[in-house]
């Protein structure tokens, strides 16, 4: 079975550029999560969708970050304009039931983002 | 807000040795997850614990949640190089979201 698929795996770009990260959750899962991982802060939740609707975006750092989930099989995380401090590994995860579920979240392999 | 503290931050052991990683919460845990992460890869789900005193095992890895449900331990018996990686504990936060500890980096010397 295919797991959570993220693209690209690596992204290097100059500050000020727009960055778009993509995620395909596991088929049948109705909840999708975007995380950011850095050495200093560890793994932090950015936003959580349930049935394609953003439920909790309290972790989104600022207005430069936006996320969409146009359908059950695709989500994007966009940074515009990007800044060097956005450099991190961004993970997408999915499960059935979201926060209230006992089902573990399944993670993609992440996108390693470097902003120069 | 709830926080998860993991100890130690890093660990180097000789192959064949046993080891323990701890995860301590500032509040009662309702669902404690253990994940493993290899460099450059995503998190792999290992186990979930919910009840006080619960213990689960998978191959040579055993995880336990204490009776007060504020601390969990992950024990690896007879470590192997394949056990190397970063181990993270995760738990339901006060907002219902999943929060994580900062991880324990395990290296196993052959």
Give structural notes.
The complex is a heterodimer of chains A (116) and B (110). With 116 residues, chain A is mostly beta strands. Helix content of chain A is 0%, strand content 53%. Chain A contains no helices and eleven strands. In chain A, strands 2, 4, 5, 6, 9, 10 and 11 form a seven-stranded mixed β-sheet that branches. A four-stranded antiparallel β-sheet of chain A has the order 1-3-8-7, with no helix packed on it. The model of chain A has no long low-confidence stretch (mean pLDDT 93). Chain B is globular and about 40 Å long. Chain B is built from no helices and eleven strands. The termini of chain B are far apart. In chain B, strands 2, 4, 5, 9, 10 and 11 form a six-stranded mixed β-sheet that branches. Chain B has a five-stranded antiparallel β-sheet with strand order 1-3-8-7-6, with no helix packed on it.
Largest sheet of chain B: 6 strands, mixed
Gross geometry of chain B:
globular
Q: Please count the beta strands of chain B (DSSP E, at least 2 residues each).
A: 11
Ends apart, CA distance between termini of chain B: 41 Å
Order of helices and strands of chain B: EEEEEEEEEEE
**Strands of chain A, count:** 11
Radius of gyration of chain A: 13 Å
Share of β-strand residues of chain A: over 45%
Estimate what percentage of residues of chain B fall within beta strands: over 45%
Order of helices and strands of chain A: EEEEEEEEEEE
pLDDT average of chain B, as an integer?
Answer: 90
Q: Can you tell me the overall shape of chain A?
A: globular
The percent of residues in helical segments of chain A reads under 10%
Cα(first) to Cα(last) distance of chain A is 36 Å
């Amino acid at each position: 079975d295919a797991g959570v698929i993220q693209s690209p795996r690596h992204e290097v770009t100059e500050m000020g550029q727009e960055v778009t990260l993509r995620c395909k959750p596991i088929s049948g899962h109705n909840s999708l999560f975007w995380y950011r991982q850095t050495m200093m802060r560890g793994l932090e939740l950015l936003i959580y969708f349930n049935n394609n609707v953003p439920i909790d975006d309290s972790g989104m750092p600022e207005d430069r970050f936006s996320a969409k989930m146009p359908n059950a099989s695709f989500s994007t995380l966009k940074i515009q304009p990007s800044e060097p401090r956005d450099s991190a590994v961004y993970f997408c995860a999915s499960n059935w039931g979201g926060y209230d579920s006992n089902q573990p979240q399944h993670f993609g392999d992440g996108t390693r983002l470097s902003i120069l | 807000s709830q926080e998860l503290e993991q100890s130690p931050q890093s660990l180097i052991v000789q192959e064949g040795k046993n080891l323990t990683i701890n995860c301590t919460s500032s509040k009662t845990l309702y669902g404690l997850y253990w994940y493993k992460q290899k460099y450059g890869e995503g998190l792999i789900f290992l186990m979930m614990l919910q009840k006080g005193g619960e213990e689960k095992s998978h191959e040579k890895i055993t995880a336990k949640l204490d009776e007060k449900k504020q601390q969990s331990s992950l024990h690896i018996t007879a470590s192997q190089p394949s056990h190397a990686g970063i181990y993270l504990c995760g738990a339901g936060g006060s907002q219902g979201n999943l929060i994580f500890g900062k991880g324990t980096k395990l290296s196993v010397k052959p």
